[in-house]
Amino acid sequence: MTNRKGLVLDFGGVLTTPLIPAALAFEKRESLPEGTLLNALYLNEEMIRRTEDLERGSITQDQWNAAAAQRIGVPHDNLMGRIFADLRPETTMFAAAEAARRAGIKVGILSNSVGTGPWNLYAGHDLDDRFDAVVISEDHGLRKPEPEIFRLVLDGLGLPADACVFVDDTERYLPPAAELGFATVHAKEPRQTVAEIEALLGVPLTAMN
Q1: Residues 7, 15, 137, 181: what is their CA dihedral angle, to the nearest 10 degrees?
Q2: How many CA atoms lie within 13 A of 158 on its CB side?
Q3: Does 208 map to a domain?
Q4: Rounded to an integer, what distance in angstroms lies between the CA atom of residue 41 and that of residue 47?
Q5: pLDDT per residue over 19-55, tens digit each?
Q6: How crowded is residue 49: how many other Cβ atoms within 10 Å of its Cβ?
Q7: DSSP 8-state symbol, 40
Q8: What is the CATH number of the domain that holds 61?
Q9: Among 83, 113, 133, where does a domain finish?
Q10: Domain coverage including residue 153
Q11: Which residues pair with 184 in a beta bridge?
């Protein structure tokens, strides 16, 4: 038996299909060399800072689009939406989250935002109705892995960290969560992720779907 009663999920890459294949598909559509986005945006100090500012809500998605487009040499119009155009809901994970709630587990979302306009990653998912707490970084001026943003989702769930499981596809966010007391799962393949969550919660999330 377990006394864990909470589950906290990242959104992009956990409740959606993986981010990297979507980015690679964008590069192919734009006739860019493979790895362009990684090198120009996610390994570049200036763009790392701009992305962190976007996650905190300090700059808009349009501002990020303009800076990123200049670096990779493509039109800026709705660039974030074009990069992630191939993302789809990860139905296995949504079903597991719904099964967890039916079993009495409180389920929250903790997501580093990529802005919500012109492209909104969260549109159409009814997060406020489907989850017990929703913390999107730009709404709070914070971002993972800052401890304060983890505490916000815990407050929303009304649970301590040691009663919760935290799931993220970004591995570097897991140790800070573990330091607060969360059990952690590195999301890679959805069915394996669900199996690891089941083991930590002591709740069958697949048979109940």
Answers
A1: 30
A2: 3
A3: no
A4: 5
A5: 999 999 999 999 999 999 999 998 999 999 999 999 9
A6: 12
A7: I
A8: 1.10.150
A9: 83
A10: 6-17+88-201
A11: 166
